[in-house]
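Sample intake sheet
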Amino acid sequence: MIEARGLTRIPLRNTVFVVCLILLAVSLLGVGFSLMWLWGVAIFGMLAGLGLYDLRQTRRTVSRNYPILAHVRYVLESIGPEIRQYFIQSDLDERPFSREQRAVVYQRAKNESDKKPFGSLLNMYQPGHEWINHSLLPCAIENANFRVRVGGSHCRQPYLASVLNISAMSFGSLSANAIEALNAGACKGGFYHDTGEGSISRYHRRHGGDLVWEIGSGYFGCRHEDGSFNEERFAANASDDQVKMIEIKLSQGAKPGHGGILPAAKVSAEIAEAREVPMGQDVISPAAHSAFSTPLELMDFIARLRSLSGGKPVGFKLAIGHPWEWFAIVKAMLETGERPDFIVVDGGEGGTGAAPLELINRMGVPLTEAVMLVHNTLVGAGLREEIRIGAAGKIMSGFHIARTLALGADWCNSARGFMFSLGCIQALNCHSDKCPSGVATQDPNRSRHLDVADKTARVYHFHRNTLKALAEMLGAAGLSHPSELGPEHIIRRASENEVQSYDQIFTFLKPNELLNTKCEHTVFKHYWEDARSDSFLPPARIARLRFTKLE
């Protein structure tokens, strides 16, 4: 405490404020001798005014207790993520992506050497470390342009998809220049660009790159004024030659089971045009679809979209949640004979979509278990040969692709990997409209500095060089194509003294196992038999509802 005769005691925490008042008084006296003292009056006057405001305001207790000084804390807190990212985190800290992961994307996108000297930075004896064993008979792969045919027996316009594509990111979430560069890069590299649920904008169309049109619960680009599905608008957009496949979004890894609202203030003329919504109104994406409410109705909707699109591949994207809901969808496939041409599995690792912390951290099944469940179920139900599986969730490198394909996927999608190729620096400001790299913002003063021609080349190079890296890994393992990858090729360290391949760690079902016998695998044992094709509700709840009706 500072105490003087005749003065109230002044806490030490107010010392900075008191010093500013004293220096302001000295500066005022000094003005009579030199005008240079006006600088002191201006500086210490503003600080003293800030201190007085802090003492009188009631919203921040810390500011009232520590006038002026508290603002130092606020400044340091606001730049905390940058301080940690640039000065504290190691090259291997994944928060959410490590410096090493980002660096390899930047290097490949710029077509620079991605070679590393002096050995791995990874601790190869740490539990969880994974690798691919090499072969004594490696092979040379001349063409890394790996393709997957998508389209079942009901599809009249099958599509040859790359094993790496751009995952769903809407115009509105990303800037116009970012969307344009992604699509131009996809066109140059011959891979697809998922539109996200924000529909097809003028920037998706400008360069003619292959599109997968994602249809979300808001039915943007194919909706009536009340938000319901519009067949005529869907058929008009789906018939575009640039649209190669149709993807129904059931849920996404970033915020599974959650809808969204785009406030009216953010609905620009271009966003309104793409989504076919009026300006000046909130744009709502409900949590659930209105065009169907049961697995059987979902199968009907898939058949309907395939017919309206002229026979193009139609599938759906989902983040796995309740297993009985997924089993119910598969039972609807078996009962109706209708099949999606593909299923994209979105891992619960989250993604580019901003969401509450609880949903990002604690909702949805992570990618490894999600892909395995989808693959196993389709194999056990005798449907795997007819349906292709895509996968998305923190996929950045050739090894990420290889391990995901070994689990059962046919191809991979990446969102944040392609964002890094555009110049994203992981500033974690995607939701604030203040993206420093002009990627995830609608602020034209920020996004206009993203050079489309330069970033187009980077998107193309990242894709090409990542597939080259995948080809090198496959060749070293004695494989000639990603389709040859199996769970026996991926090895995980279980402990310091034990390693196991995926086929030893995980249980894989045999073809038709779910149809012929009672499966003893835990999740199937508990939920497969009771799942119903006519409802997404949990079996116990269906029974309770029936009992109530009987009463």
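Comment: The first helix runs from residue 15 to 30. The radius of gyration is 28 Å.
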